[in-house]
Amino acid sequence: MSFRSNRKGKGKGKEKQEVIDVSKLYKMKQEKVSAWTMKGLVNVISATGLSTISNTIDESFQEEEQREITSEWEAKLAAYRIFKNVARPAHKYINVEDLQRFLSREEVEYLLPFFGGAAETGKIKKSALRNWVVKAYLDRKSLAHSLNDTKTAVNQLHKLATAVVIIAVFVITLILTGIATTQVLVFISSQLLLVVFMFGNSCKMAFEAIIFVFVMHPFDVGDRCVVDGIQMIVEEMNILTTVFLKFDNEKIYYPNSVLATKPISNFYRSPDMSDAVEFSVDISTSVESIGALKSMIKMYIDSKPNHWHPNHSVVVKGIVDVNKMNMALYVNHTMNFQNIPEKNSRRSDLVLELKRIFEELSIKYNLLPQEVLLSYTGSTPLPMAITQSLV
C-alpha cells in the first residue's frame, strides 16, 4: 500500500502526483525526521486516502485507474483484491512463501504479528487480512480528521490573535501620531471597560479553552475516552467545544472550558491494559483440581501470545458461607481498550475457554441445601399418602 496526493505543478492546469513509499517511511527514525518531511506527510495524510492498488502486487493493475479507499466497504474490497493477487490459486490463506515474493524475510517477520494467529501458523487468513486493512483505513481516517481539526483550531486562534494585534496597533498609532487626545483615550477606555463587562466571562472561557486544546491536549480525534463515567469517541475538536460520539452514535457537545475541570480517561494513549474474570467454585473442589485449573489456563494464555501477555494470576479472593470460593483470573492484554470490539472478542474467547476447562475438570458450584416449608390451607384433609410423605 502507498499514499499519494495530487498537487499543482509547473504550467497551467498541470498536476504533479506525489507518492510516499511506505517502505522508506518505515525506515525513518522519529527523532531524525525533518520539518519539511513532516509537513509533506501531514499534507498527504490530511488530503488523501489509502491507495487500493500497489505496483508491487500486480503490474496489470498499473493500467487501471487508481482509486482511494473512502469507506469500510471499499477497504474490504481492497483486502479481497490483495488476497486474490498474493495468495496462490484455490488457497484459503497467504503463507510465508507468498509474502516473500514481495517482501524480504525481515519484513515478513515484522508483518505477521499484525494478523491474528499468523505469527504462530505462518498463514494469513482472508478474514485476518480484511480486519487489518479496515483497521488501517480507520486509523488513517482518524489521523486525518485529527490533523484537519488541529489545523482549523490553529486558524481560529490565528484570526483571534490577528484581531487583538490590529486593535493594539491602532491604539498605539493614535498615541504616537498625537491624534489620541485625553478625551479620545478616555472614550476608548470606557468602551474597553464596557466590552470587558459584557464579554469578560466569554473571554475567560475562551482562554481556558485555548489552554485546554493546545497545552493540556488530553485527546485527539478518534480517541476512545471516558468522561463523567461515559465511554465515548472524540468526533470533532474545535477551539471552544469538543464533539463526542457515544456507542449508539449519539453526539454530545462539551465546552472545552468544562472539560478542563474534569478527569478524562484516554484508552488510546494508555499502555497495554489488564482485565479480570471472576468466578466461584464449590468449597469441596480439591487443591489438585485448582492446580490443574491454573496449569490449563497458563497453557491457553501461552498459546495466544498475540492476545495475552504471559504474566497472569489466578487467586482465591475469599470463602463465602463455607460453601463457595470466590476466585479471579487477572490477565494482561497485548493492547489497550481503544478497539473495544477486539477486546470483547478476546475476553469472550477466554471465558469460553474457562467454561471448557471447568467441564473437563468437573469443577462445579452447588448451592447450599435449602429448607422448604409447605403449608396447606384447604378445607378437606390431605390424602394419607401425601400426609405421610410430609411427616
From TrEMBL:
Any GO BP annotation: detection of mechanical stimulus
Transmembrane segments: 160-180, 192-215
Membrane topology, from the record: Multi-pass membrane protein
Organism: Asparagus officinalis (Garden asparagus)
GO annotation, cellular component aspect: plasma membrane
Keywords: Membrane, Transmembrane, Transmembrane helix, Transport
Protein name as catalogued: Mechanosensitive ion channel MscS domain-containing protein
Compartment list: Membrane
Main location: membrane
One term of GO molecular function: mechanosensitive monoatomic ion channel activity
Residue ranges constituting the Mechanosensitive ion channel MscS domain according to the UniProt record: 211-267
Family: Belongs to the MscS (TC 1.A.23) family.
The organism's place on the tree of life at top rank: Eukaryota
Annotated Pfam families: MS_channel_2nd (PF00924)
